[in-house]
């Protein structure tokens, strides 16, 4: 009951006119910045950090929370309409959202994303109130073997459900893992695949890979086929969700938080792994599997709800342990320290008003996000009426601006073009794009956790399976790998 009493006090803080205004400003700024490829919510919070020097800490963090949620939704908007993820958590949304938009169902995809964010945010923030201490205590006990097992599960789950064949999915994953190796070895400092170029010593930024493979690769692919298909605008279609759409989306909306919140609360988690797993889960459970890859609305609703709940989960370890699990959480941790506040087990006792005001503002920001963006779905979708040569020319321009903004180095533009050509080649030969991006995002982390686990066991492979959680995850991996073969054997026996 203490939690609910504090939460009511938090609503009293968050619902003051001034704090409501800061929450609305944060949501609008976050959505606007999230729409720009490469400039995600983390960069938005970092850019606005100096602006808040004159604000009190509660107002500043309420605005930061609005920027976080708004940035995630803005990233999904460009994923759906332009096949250009604004940030890494929105990568999965492009797989089904963009085919929906191209077939005239852009408003439905945007509405499914907005409602998914609302449901995931509300459920995730409620879980934050109820489960923060318990989840934090469990998260502390998760070790390197468990992290590696979870990442292997993400690799297997995504490569097994995407593309025309598992072999092509695996080939795409290997390309991504290779790109993830570029740079300095995190443990020895040895340079790998840098070809003697100092610029590549820090590796290739995930934003460059995502924007290059999705946006630039798609633009080049469309340009190569415009002369065959003409350049007529993409239809916008009618707004709002039909009964059939609601029937297909309500279960993914509710399943998303079950996947997203625990992963968000795990240190070094984030929204990437759970959104990939959510997509794989929805494809397995859907009665419309033949639509996946062509515009299945479940593939938008599930990952978006998952990403929003994961955002709430990241607040658990950031507030209770002082461990940032995402780039945004790391910037917010720096903001706490700027105000002389140290997140950790004693934060809820020392800064009660601030913490519960922040948690209440997450509820307020989620509602504002829905109220602002749901009516705007048809307006956003009208971007698709722009003739395709101008539309994809604009995409290339904003993709280049976003890539340059990541590091401020012109060499990034060359890297972007090369990765875009790779994306074009992958489309030409039927390789799915998502496993490659998954490999870039999770590959370095998987390698680091595997080597840590092997170091702890003096090089013994048993060090990878020395915890109950790791064994359970590998059992799920074995089922995923054996299921197609078992299904074929059962069908053959029935014949």
Automatic annotation (TrEMBL):
The keyword Cell inner membrane does not apply. It comes from the Bacteria. Keywords: Membrane, Transmembrane, Transmembrane helix. Pfam families: TctA. InterPro entries: DUF112_TM. The chain crosses the membrane at residues 20-49, 61-82, 109-132, 144-163, 169-185, 206-224, 258-279, 315-336, 356-377, 389-407, 413-442, 463-486. Residues 20-438 form the DUF112 domain. This is Putative tricarboxylic transport membrane protein. It comes from Actinomadura namibiensis. The lineage of its organism: Bacteria, Bacillati, Actinomycetota, Actinomycetes, Streptosporangiales.
């Amino acid at each position: 009951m203490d939690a609910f009493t504090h939460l009511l006090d938090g609503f009293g803080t968050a619902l003051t006119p001034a704090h409501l205004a800061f929450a609305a400003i944060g949501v609008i700024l976050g959505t606007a910045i999230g729409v720009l490829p490469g400039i995600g919510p983390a960069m938005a919070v970092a850019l606005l950090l100096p602006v808040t020097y004159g604000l009190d800490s509660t107002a500043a963090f309420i605005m930061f929370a609005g920027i976080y949620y708004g940035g995630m939704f803005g990233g999904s908007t460009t994923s759906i309409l332009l096949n250009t993820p604004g940030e890494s958590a929105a990568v999965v949304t492009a797989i089904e959202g963009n085919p929906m938009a191209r077939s005239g169902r852009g408003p439905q995809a945007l509405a499914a994303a907005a409602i998914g964010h609302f449901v995931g945010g509300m459920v995730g923030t409620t879980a934050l109130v109820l489960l923060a201490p318990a989840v934090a205590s469990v998260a502390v006990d998760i070790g390197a073997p468990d992290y590696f097992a979870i990442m292997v599960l993400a690799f297997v789950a995504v490569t097994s459900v995407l593309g025309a064949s598992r072999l092509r999915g695996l080939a795409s994953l290997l390309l991504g893992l290779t790109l993830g190796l570029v740079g300095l070895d995190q443990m020895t400092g040895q340079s790998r695949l840098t070809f003697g170029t100092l610029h590549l010593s820090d590796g290739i930024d995930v934003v460059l890979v995502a924007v290059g493979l999705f946006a630039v690769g798609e633009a080049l692919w469309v340009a190569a086929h415009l002369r065959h298909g003409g350049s007529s605008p993409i239809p916008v279609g009618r707004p709002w969700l039909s009964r059939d759409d609601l029937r297909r989306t309500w279960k993914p909306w509710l399943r998303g938080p079950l996947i997203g919140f625990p992963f968000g609360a795990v240190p070094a988690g984030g929204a990437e792994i759970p959104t990939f797993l959510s997509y794989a889960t929805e494809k397995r459970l859907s009665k419309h599997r033949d639509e996946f890859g062509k515009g299945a609305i479940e593939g938008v609703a599930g990952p978006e709800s998952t990403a929003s709940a994961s955002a709430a989960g990241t607040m658990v370890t950031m507030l209770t342990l002082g461990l940032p699990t995402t780039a945004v959480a790391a910037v917010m941790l720096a903001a706490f320290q700027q105000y002389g506040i140290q997140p950790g087990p004693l934060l809820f006792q020392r800064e009660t008003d601030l913490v519960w005001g922040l948690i209440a503002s997450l509820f307020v920001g989620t509602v504002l996000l829905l109220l602002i963006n749901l009516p705007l779905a048809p307006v956003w979708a009208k971007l698709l009426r722009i003739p395709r040569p101008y539309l994809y020319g604009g995409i290339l321009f904003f993709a280049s601006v976003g890539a340059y903004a990541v590091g401020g180095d012109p060499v990034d533009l060359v890297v972007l073009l090369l990765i875009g050509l790779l994306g074009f080649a992958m489309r030409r030969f039927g390789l799915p794009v998502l496993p490659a991006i998954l490999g870039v995002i999770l590959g370095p982390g998987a390698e680091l956790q595997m080597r840590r686990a092997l170091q702890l066991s003096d090089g013994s492979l048993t060090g990878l399976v020395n915890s109950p959680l790791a064994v359970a995850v590998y059992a799920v991996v074995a089922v995923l790998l054996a299921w197609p073969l078992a299904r074929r054997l059962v069908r053959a026996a029935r014949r």
